[in-house]
Amino acid sequence: MKTLGNKKIGVVGVGNMGASILEGVLARRLTTSSRIWVYDKAVNKAQSFARRHHVGRASSVAELLEKTDIVLLAMKPQDFTSFAMEHRSLFRPGQGVISILAGMTTEKIAKALGKNVTIVRAMPNLGAKVGQSMTVICGKNKAALSFAGTLFAGCGEVVTLPEKMLDLVTAISGSGPAYFFHLMELLTDFGVKQGLPSTVAEVLAVQTGLGAALLAKSSEESCGELRERVTSKKGTTEAALKTLQRKKFGKIFQQALTAAMNRSRALRKAV
Ligand SMILES: NC(=O)c1ccc[n+]([C@@H]2O[C@H](COP(=O)([O-])OP(=O)(O)OC[C@H]3O[C@@H](n4cnc5c(N)ncnc54)[C@H](OP(=O)(O)O)[C@@H]3O)[C@@H](O)[C@H]2O)c1
């Protein structure tokens, strides 16, 4: 398996995503804990992460940048502008920066940090928490993209795309976990309404979702082909799917995805 070599990685912000990405990297032994440094404005978060995973804790951004080769920015987008204003002078020319900040374009990051930093943008998703993120990365520098690809492989699947695709990606895989949660929620609600205890209804819904996802992932057939294969003529599945078609579920879902994509565009312009 490809590893991160001897490059030292600094992470700014060890909240939900920063911590999950690092935990994946460590669990899959892509690097050693001695090559990781963390910094968080919330000192207790950085302390407890460093203690749990035996990584270094920098007491300042200056220390983090001095000790590491590549910096992963994992704070909220709204915290980035003040971070950049305060610390831009500490970045080295050509410094490797990987950003997971939603909506913050390469152009804006480059302008905020200056000094021709080498930027890779990444859009992971919530699956990172269980090592099953779908992460899309984009950037111009091949070596930096390859490094980021290996880093995010620690917490799931990685695909490289042009940056102009990121609003679309946000609508599909960024917001995507919530669509599947909603479908499982609807299955659970129906089970409860028809008389099942809620814990049982939820197990039926979630385990079915998990089984379907694993099957789709391991099968050579497309999702459409798998659906056709389990839909027998005049059977129960066909009865449900025909109702969805009649009510134009596909069209409604397309509208929902378009709304997510447009919202991503608007937020990007506002950041
Ligand atoms: N969650 C997702 O599914 C998802 C998916 C794709 C991308 N993202 C992106 O991932 C990023 C992180 O999201 P998250 O959910 O992990 O957020 P989070 O849990 O709030 O973690 C961010 C951490 O960064 C800290 N922080 C804020 N400003 C800082 C600064 N100047 N220096 C150092 N640390 C700072 C925060 O401290 P305080 O709590 O004290 O503010 C917090 O501990 C966001 O930019 C988001 O757009 C998230």
Describe this structure in words.
The chain has 271 residues and is α/β, with parallel strands linked by helices. The protein has two domains: 9-174, 3-Layer(aba) Sandwich (Rossmann fold), CATH 3.40.50; 177-270, ProC C-terminal domain-like (ProC C-terminal domain-like fold), CATH 1.10.3730.10. The chain contains twelve helices and eight strands. It has helices at residues 16-27, 43-53, 61-67, 77-87, 106-113, 142-153, 166-174, 176-193, 198-218, 223-229, 236-246, 249-270, and strands at residues 9-12, 36-39, 56-57, 70-73, 96-99, 118-123, 133-139, 156-160. It has an eight-stranded mixed beta sheet, with helices on both faces. Helix 7 crosses helix 12 (249-270) and helix 8 (176-193) crosses helix 9 (198-218). The longest helix is centred in the last third of the chain and has 22 residues, at 249-270. The protein starts with 8 loop residues before the first strand and ends with a helix. Bound molecules: NADP nicotinamide-adenine-dinucleotide phosphate (NAP). Residues 12-13, 15-18, 39-42, 45, 74-77, 79, 83, 100-102, 123-126, 174 line the site of NADP nicotinamide-adenine-dinucleotide phosphate.
Provide the CATH superfamily of the largest domain: NAD(P)-binding Rossmann-like Domain
- The CATH first-level class of the largest domain comes to Alpha Beta
Domain module count: 2
Total helical elements: 12
Our measurement of the CA-to-CA distance between the termini, rounded to an integer number of angstroms, reads 37 Å
Q: What ligands are attached or bound here? A: NADP nicotinamide-adenine-dinucleotide phosphate
- Run of helices and strands: EHEHEHEHEHEEHEHHHHHH
Number of strands: 8
Please state the average pLDDT score: 96
